[in-house]
Amino acid sequence: MLNRILQERLKNRHQENSFRKLSSDQELLDFTSNDYLGFARSQELFRLIKDKVNTLPHRNGATGSRLLSGNSTYTEEVEQKLASIFKSEAALIFNSGYTANQAVLSSIPQKGDTILYDELAHACMRDGARLSHAKRFAFKHNDLSDIDKKLKAAEGNIFIAVESIYSMDGDSCPLRELVSLADQYNASIILDEAHSTGILGPEGSGMAVQESLDQKIPVRIYTFGKAMGIHGACVAGSRDLIDYLINYARPFIFTTAPTPHSIASIDCSFAHLSNNLTLQDKLKQRIELFTSLSREYNLSRLGSNSQIQSMVIAGNDSVKNAAQRLQRKGYDVRPILSPTVAKGSERLRICLHTFNADEEINGLVQELSALA
């Protein structure tokens, strides 16, 4: 009975040419991973983590949740370091950005409150909002007038959920203007800094700190599995916020804590970044080269100002064929299919890295121009 149900649903994916399957690493030029600063492949960072782990009590696992046996003074020390970097009173480590966003949005908004979220917000924000008892409404992407309209109709405590850099188009949230709107309506912003962590701000502290808006945004989520090259996440904010999450956030309370190795990886990754801040400038140079070449080749469908670029090629069949063509040329570029994105906005998602050479970027743009 169950297999029949599953097979019917999977059949729909095949019919839409949107069936997902796992693939192993290929020997291609990386233009798809989130390893923006090259930390995931850094042998120096690997050695730093190994050396740090050797100084810790020899435990392979956390042994339980943070509220039982999974806490340590070292974890709390790393959280204090993160709070200092992110200019907040406190920080709380989570196993992933997904669970951190889910924890915040499922536990803080209550029945009678309103959550407004960008229509392009990540699935974890949507899932967290769905688990709350608050009313929830999407607003048009980065559309301040639509946000204003929905704020006027919002009830109870109001929460606005946005991302600093959006993962599909690579465009940025109009954060300063959004802060002004939130002040006007006494709303609280929940900001996911997943794709700006490590990339923007002093010590990789993200967009809010870079724009000196950190004290205006009560809840910020930072992810370490992208530019930081490791795994995990944290929520940064007031001491009251962190105490609240410890007491009410089910994804924190009822899950096994990160391993000692994971905590050491977070510690070492930010230490490594502090000694290699020129990598932020190097990534900007890669972005500037890519966008300059895109203009030269009249690729008007490309051109965000971040490390994430996208080229819309409508239709799952068409975008998959385009990605396969690039892969045959040696470029690891993946298609983003519907329903991950809206039908008709299927695209090639291109990620730039510090380790992408000039000639590799130039060659990729030439191949993209042949697809246009």
Q: Could you list some keywords that capture this structure?
A:
three-stranded antiparallel beta sheet; alpha/beta; 14% strand; 372 residues; Aspartate Aminotransferase, domain 1; Aspartate Aminotransferase, domain 2; 12 strands
Give a structural overview.
This protein has 372 residues and is α/β, with parallel strands linked by helices. It folds into two domains: 17-37 and 277-371, Alpha-Beta Complex (Aspartate Aminotransferase, domain 1), CATH 3.90.1150.10; 45-274, 3-Layer(aba) Sandwich (Aspartate Aminotransferase, domain 2), CATH 3.40.640.10. The chain is 42% helix and 14% strand. The chain contains 14 helices and twelve strands. The chain has helices spanning 2-15, 43-53, 73-85, 97-107, 123-131, 144-153, 175-185, 207-210, 239-248, 250-253, 260-274, 278-296, 316-328, 358-371; strands at residues 29-30, 90-94, 114-118, 135-139, 158-163, 188-192, 219-223, 233-237, 308-312, 331-332, 334-336, 347-351. The protein has a seven-stranded mixed sheet with strand order 2-8-7-6-5-3-4, sandwiched between helices. The chain is globular. 43% of the residues are buried.
